[in-house]
Write a structure and sequence with these properties.
Layout: H1 2-9, E1 15-19, H2 27-40, E2 45-49, H3 53-59, E3 62-67, E4 70-76, H4 77-83, E5 85-91, E6 105-111, E7 114-119, H5 124-134, E8 138-145, H6 148-158
Parallel strand pairs: 1-2
Antiparallel strand pairs: 3-4, 5-7, 5-8, 6-7
Length: 163
């Protein structure tokens, strides 16, 4: 694989398409491959399809998510990581799921005094205000950033029934 990549890079392509380039590589070869790709990043557009989300998160400047042949999003990695948050709300007393919630909330789960959901359009002020509006007896709210893997799993599971 290294030889094929080196051979193709000699022609200074404008676009490199790689499908699962990290599979089956030992850590040293994987790092060398990534270093080689990063060396070309300023002069080449790279399209990488991979299930190795940790490597993609460390490597990519832009990311897209395709589900059942449809592009669900395509954006800069920093923008994506800024807009998704895991939210956990602690209530004074047990609650039921609210009748309506913002469309940006995913995977709402209410269990006794704790409510968890994924906010897909995070804005600290708006998210806090919408949460206070939905849960009037809120005691505490904890908001945590998400990894690319967590975002992918939330997106994949949100389309499944009973998830």
């Amino acid at each position: 694989m290294k030889a094929a990549l080196v051979g193709s890079l000699a022609y200074h392509p404008k676009l490199i398409v790689l499908d699962e380039p990290f599979g089956g590589l030992d850590p040293l070869v994987r790092d060398e491959l990534i270093d080689g790709l990063l060396d070309r990043a300023s002069e080449t557009t790279m399209f990488i399809s991979s299930h190795d989300l940790a490597e993609i998160e460390n490597l990519a400047s832009h990311v897209g998510y395709i589900e059942q042949g449809k592009l669900r999003f395509s954006e800069e990695m920093t923008s994506l990581l800024e807009r998704f948050r895991e939210v956990e709300v602690t209530l004074e007393e047990p609650a039921e799921s609210p009748a309506s919630v913002p469309q940006s909330w995913m995977r709402l789960n209410v269990a006794a005094n704790v409510v968890r959901f994924i906010e897909s359009r995070f804005d600290e002020e708006r998210t806090s205000a919408e949460t206070r509006s939905a849960f009037r007896n809120m005691r505490n709210i904890a908001i945590a950033p998400m990894t690319l893997r967590s975002i992918f799993l939330a997106m994949a599971k949100s389309g499944r029934p009973n998830e």
